[in-house]
Write a structure and sequence with these properties.
Layout lengths: L2 E12 L16 E11 L4 E6 L3 H15 L7 H15 L8 H14 L3 H4 L6 E8 L5 H14 L3 E5 L4 H15 L4 E5 L6 H13 L4 E3 L7 H10 L4 E2 L7 H11 L5 E3 L1 H18 L4 E3 L4 H9 L6 E5 L15 E3 L12 H5 L10
Helix pairs in contact: 1-2, 3-10, 5-6, 6-7, 9-10
Length: 359
């Protein structure tokens, strides 16, 4: 089997419901620009991946990835992953492009084998519990309202993205614990908004409130700052998420004692890189928590033994729960061969978005 063409299609959709992140980060854009990558083989099997970027993704696909991929055997994913890793040395690829081709190659591999991706990766779970991962809401009262809706839907775990204001965020963490009681798993994500001092303050609040993990409170450039934070807290610290270097940087964090759990996930590592991080963490008896939603990450969450949850974004009030998450708060491992994107190629060429999730 050989790759004979590499194509990209950019789709623009208006954003009908706005949402926010913490202070300093942009919230919802006026329109969502998404690029779909299509890898075509001489055996009539196509692979797809989706990148939440427009012109940048198209430039890299056309200028860098297509010349590298055409003529390659798409089943040689290890080789191609390393070729793209070498390309990154010169191009300094955006982190969201490092695994874009890899996802599509795994889609081809699954279709060729007649197996869903999670089974190709070894398979661990047929269904995975999800946690509701919030956007940033205006007040504590609104958070509690959204959380009540999530619990009523069936979620038994909640992760907060708050304002990025240490004292207010710490108070919110305690208010949420008081509201839901002790039987709901709670997590807090700082979205890299704090200094080392404020990170310690908020981390202690999460620790006292019995949170399951404390995620990315600082930018991830300083491993020593994270080591000091881990040494100072009992709550597990979950990093690195956006640090460049895939499993190599995860290894450095683990070796330095700068992470208690590590992040993995297809958006920044592809499938090959994500599994490397997961196995690395497992060898150190640590969890590798899958970051972000979407079909590739559902497969990863179902395949990785040392992952706890699937991350399901809850961006609006009233809540909108993504397709695929059941009323029991679980997401089922997809059964279609490959990743399971539902693609109308004609519609995609005409600028109409395909579904990322079935249903």
């Amino acid at each position: 089997m050989k790759i004979v063409a590499v194509e990209s299609y950019t789709v623009t959709e208006p954003v009908t419901v706005s949402w926010l992140w913490r202070d300093g980060l942009p919230g919802s854009p006026p329109e969502e620009i998404v690029t779909w990558l299509r890898i075509v083989t001489d055996e009539g099997i196509d692979g797809y991946s989706c990148i939440d970027r427009g012109p940048i993704a198209q430039d890299i696909i056309g200028r860098c990835l297509a010349p590298l991929l055409i003529g390659q055997d798409p089943l040689r994913k290890e080789l191609i992953w390393h070729l793209i890793w070498e390309l990154d040395r010169i191009e300094e690829l955006p982190i969201y492009m490092l695994g874009a081709a890899d996802i599509a190659l795994w889609d081809i591999t699954g279709k060729a084998a007649g197996l869903p991706l999670h089974q190709l990766l070894g398979g661990y779970a047929e269904a995975v519990p999800g946690y509701a991962s919030t956007a940033t809401f205006a007040t504590t009262a609104e958070y509690l309202d959204v959380i009540d809706q999530c619990l009523d839907y069936g979620f038994r775990a909640i992760k907060l993205h708050a304002w990025g204001r240490p004292r207010e965020d710490a108070a919110l963490c305690q208010a949420v614990r008081d509201h839901v009681g002790d039987d709901i798993d709670l997590m807090y994500d700082g979205s890299a908004g704090f200094s080392p001092y404020d990170s310690l303050y908020v981390g202690r609040a999460c620790e006292l409130a019995g949170y399951r993990w404390y995620e990315e409170p600082m930018r991830e450039f300083s491993i020593s700052a994270y080591r000091r934070l881990c040494d100072s807290l009992d709550i597990p610290v979950l990093v690195p998420e956006t640090a460049d270097g895939c499993h190599y940087i995860a290894a450095e964090y683990i070796h330095a004692g700068a992470a208690d759990m590590v992040r993995t996930g297809s958006d920044f590592r592809g499938i090959t890189g994500s599994m490397r991080v997961a196995h690395l963490a497992d060898a150190h008896q640590m969890t590798a928590e899958v970051h972000g939603g979407g079909l590739p990450n559902i497969h990863l969450a179902a395949a990785v033994r040392n992952n706890s949850y699937y991350e399901s974004m809850v961006l609006t009030n009233p809540i909108r729960v993504e397709p695929g998450v059941g009323r029991d708060g679980h997401v089922k491992a997809p059964l279609a061969p490959g990743i399971g994107f539902e693609i109308d190629l004609g519609g995609l060429r005409a600028g109409r978005p395909p579904s990322r999730l079935p249903g």
